[in-house]
Write a structure and sequence with these properties.
The structure holds 2 protein chains of 2 kinds.
Chain A lengths: L1 H10 L1 H36 L4 E5 L3 H8 L10 E2 H4 L10 E13 L2 E6 L3 H4 L4 E4 L7 E4 L1 H7 L6 E6 L9 E12 L9 E5 H9 L3 H5 L3 E2 L1 E6 L5 H13 L2 E4 L1 H44 L1 H9 L4 H42 L10 H26 L3 H5 L3
Parallel strand pairs in A: 4-9, 6-8
Antiparallel strand pairs in A: 1-11, 1-12, 2-10, 3-4, 3-7, 3-11, 5-8, 6-9, 7-8
Helix pairs in contact in A: 1-12, 2-10, 2-12, 2-13, 10-11, 10-12, 10-13, 12-13
Chain B lengths: L1 E10 L3 E4 L3 E3 L4 E5 L6 H8 L7 E6 L2 E2 L5 H11 E4 L11 H11 L6 H10 L15 H13 L5 E5 L7 H17 L3 E6 L11 E3 L1
Parallel strand pairs in B: 4-9, 4-10, 7-8, 8-9
Antiparallel strand pairs in B: 1-2, 1-3, 1-5, 5-6
Helix pairs in contact in B: 3-5, 5-6
Classes of the chains: A alpha+beta, B alpha/beta.
Chain lengths: 397, 208
């Protein structure tokens, strides 16, 4: 019976392929959106690195986080090291780790981050080669940096002012020396050059007077709490925001805000894709209904040959089901294939890693809903087939 | 083997058709003659279990059709009755062999390619087993239809005007095939027709 449904579904190729493509388009689009959303969140969460709070210069909290945690935006400004020194006391009752970050220079587009040896620990990253940076002007580089900038242990390089690769005219006068390369972790660390924070102060101290006179400054301080459930930590960001000229931002909250902003656009797309699936459901419905007229005699014939009404019902439902099923599978194949290609592009363009091959639980729901829509669109034609009257059409009329 | 008693059928509670009793032994052949509108096709549908009679009863191989439920009747029809119509219908998406196999599947028999080939061979159609039915000529389609009607070795083959659209030569050919193959399968044959050419072929005749 299934074989017959299969053959029938492909007999009227034009209509079947049309319904199928529509179906695949809708399912593929939603599945693709689900994938992108999932990968983005996954990447963002991986790079969250367990940081509970970021303290930096006043400005957009989202920018502070995108800059200092995800390394995709510009700094909001600098803060004085002395202003946050208290948080870096290892005996602080609320804070288990405080990692200073100083960004603003690059080497061939890769960001140079002045920090402490605790920084790689946030990503639980280990060294693949060499030793951890210790003295000023020593640098440990991420895996992608060594691969793409061609830096090896012992190589020396000049840093460049700004976050984007320039023409080399703004180079600083002191040389960094590569002492270690991190093993690849899939997080943003792969794209960074780490150096002791003193290096940053050194390279900047030589070329402008303000720098000489000014206090030592950093871009941001990344904090981890001892106990997230402690009610005092809930007040900490507000205290900083209200009583100092610095701001404190909670990455989890800011990233949620970002998801909400992105979510509206995504929701629209998803609704569009869903309506495509619905339209393809209607297309399956019309295709079957249309075919039913032509196949009246065929169905009557099957009744004559001993098929029960239930069997004819099942036959039409199976045809609708096959179209929905194959359409969904094609859709998933397209979306995952596209994800795979898109992943390679994103990896190159944004240095974020995407893969296309895992199946998400949300997609299972999508699959179930899609097949259900297919079956529902087969329902009325199947009921009509169920009620096929043999007598009218079996004879000569 | 097939026996009807006091059969009648009412259309829309107005027109009532009454049928004389009919008795046919195992493998016997019979002609039902009548002009248009005398209920020939209705009788055929009643005998085939496609319609339920208003009164009276039909027994085929000791089964009273009125005792069968809807689904059982469908199954019984698939197993015991073969149909040949004036026009030939097939499942368009299936080839000749598959169309015949479908008749077996619907009768809950396991489709056997060997059996189908033998049947087609008897009708000189074995080489057409993989053709799509609607690409065949009318005569070939008729042979496939006969093969399909006989594949389950039914108790009875019901033929509705199998010859009325054919010229004399083809009429003879079709009747030869029907009679010969029905006999080979030990199936009874009831031909419903207004075609007077058949009168000389089958001695047992009923006039409606």
């Amino acid at each position: 019976m299934f074989r017959i449904a299969w053959k029938n579904a492909w007999f009227n190729k034009f209509h079947s392929v049309l319904s199928l493509l529509l179906f695949a388009l809708g399912v593929g689009l939603i599945s693709f959106l689900l994938q992108v959303q999932h990968r983005l969140q996954q990447n963002f969460e991986k790079n969250l690195a367990g940081v509970d709070l970021i303290i930096g210069a006043k400005g957009s909290p989202l920018q502070l986080i995108l800059c200092n945690l995800y390394h995709i935006d510009n700094p909001t400004g600098n803060i004085k090291l002395s202003a946050v020194q208290a948080f870096m006391n290892p005996a602080h009752p609320l804070i288990s780790a405080a990692v200073p970050v100083s960004v603003g220079d690059n080497y061939r587009g890769f960001r140079i981050v002045g920090t402490t040896q605790e920084f790689p620990g946030l990503y639980s990253a280990g060294l693949e080669q060499g030793t951890m940076f210790g003295k000023a002007m020593e640098a440990c580089i991420g895996y992608e940096v060594s691969k793409n900038a061609g830096l090896k242990i012992g190589d020396e390089f000049y840093s460049e002012h700004g976050l984007l690769q320039g023409d080399g005219e703004n180079s600083h006068g002191q040389k960094f020396r590569v002492c270690g390369i991190f093993s690849p972790g899939g997080a943003v660390l792969d794209q960074l050059i780490l150096t002791p924070i003193e290096s940053i102060w050194m390279v900047h101290s030589d070329h402008k007077e303000e720098h000489e006179n000014s206090e030592k400054s950093i871009t941001a301080l990344l904090l981890k709490y001892r106990n997230r459930a402690n009610f005092q930590v809930l007040n900490l960001p507000r205290n900083i925001n209200e009583h100092t000229d610095m701001q404190a931002a909670v990455p989890a909250i800011e990233m949620n805000r970002l998801y909400v902003i992105l979510g509206t656009g995504e929701k629209m797309l998803r609704m569009l894709a869903f309506s495509i699936i619905l339209v393809s459901g209607v297309s399956i419905f019309l295709a079957l209904l249309n075919a039913l007229k032509e196949r009246k005699n065929e169905l009557a014939l099957m009744r004559v040959m001993g098929a029960s009404s239930g069997r004819l019902f099942g036959l039409i439902m199976a045809e609708a089901g096959i179209l929905a099923l194959v359409g969904s599978i094609v859709g998933f194949a397209i979306s995952h294939g596209a994800m795979f290609l898109f992943g390679n592009y994103v990896k190159n363009a944004y240095r974020y890693s995407f893969e296309g091959l895992t199946f998400l639980p949300g997609e299972l729901v999508l699959f179930a809903v899609a097949v259900l829509i297919g079956l529902v669109s087969g329902l009325i034609p199947a009921l009509l087939a169920y009620r096929t009257r043999i007598t009218v059409s079996s004879g000569q009329n | 083997m097939i026996e009807t008693r006091n059969l009648s059928f009412s259309y829309d509670n107005k027109t009532t058709l009454r049928f004389n009793d009919l008795m046919l032994g195992e493998g016997e052949q019979c002609l039902v003659l009548g002009k248009s509108g005398t209920g020939k096709t209705t009788l055929l549908h009643l005998l085939g279990g496609l319609l339920r009679p208003s009164t009276g009863k039909i027994c085929i191989r000791d089964t009273d059709l009125s005792t069968l439920k809807k689904k059982q009747l469908d199954r019984f029809r698939g197993n015991n009755i073969g149909f040949v119509f004036q026009k030939h219908y097939f499942v368009a998406a299936l080839n000749v062999g598959e169309n015949i196999a479908l008749a077996q599947t619907l009768a809950d028999a396991k489709p056997s390619r060997k059996g189908i080939l033998e049947m087609l061979d008897a009708l000189q159609m074995a080489d057409k087993i993989n053709r799509m039915p609607y690409t065949l000529s009318q005569g070939e389609q008729q042979r496939v239809a006969i093969a399909r009607a006989l594949i389950n070795q039914p108790a009875i083959v019901l033929a509705d005007e199998p010859t009325s659209a054919l010229d004399d030569d083809n009429c003879t050919a079709v009747m030869d095939l029907l009679e010969k193959n029905a006999a080979q399968c030990n199936s009874g044959l009831i031909v419903v027709t207004h075609d007077n050419r058949l009168k000389s072929r089958i001695s047992q005749q009923i006039q409606l």
